[in-house]
Amino acid sequence: MRGLELEPIRAALAARSAADARATERFKRLENWRERLIAEGEPALAELARWHPGIDRDAWAARVSAARSERARGGGGGAGRELFRALRALFATITR
């Protein structure tokens, strides 16, 4: 074991750690956008449209409205998850 090269192992672990950190950051960014859209509604949607001008505002407004209604009823689930999935898809097309 003493003859084992540790540097390639350290480099692989560091690369994996960096990739995990980027994935965590992406998740937090998406979660932040979802929470803003649900809490703020139209102002947050307008900002999202400024950042991503090609979005279908009507479809996004419907998603946000459904998630806001769901949250107001105290329910958790479908609409909020759908909004998160849509955000993930939107950001994935832009960052690739």
Describe this structure in words.
The chain has 96 residues and is mainly α. It contains 4 helices and no strands. The mean pLDDT is 89.
Q: What share of residues is helical?
A: over 70%
Query: What value does the Rg take, in angstroms?
Result: 19 Å
Shape, per Cα inertia axes: elongated
| End-to-end separation | 41 Å
Structural class: mainly alpha
Sheet with most strands: none
Mean pLDDT: 89
Relative strand content: under 5%
- Count of DSSP H/I helices: 4
Q: Poorly predicted ranges (pLDDT <50, ≥5 residues)? A: none
Total strands: the figure is 0
Q: SSE string, helix = H, strand = E? A: HHHH
Write the layout of secondary structure elements.
Elements: H1 7-40, H2 42-51, H3 57-72, H4 78-95
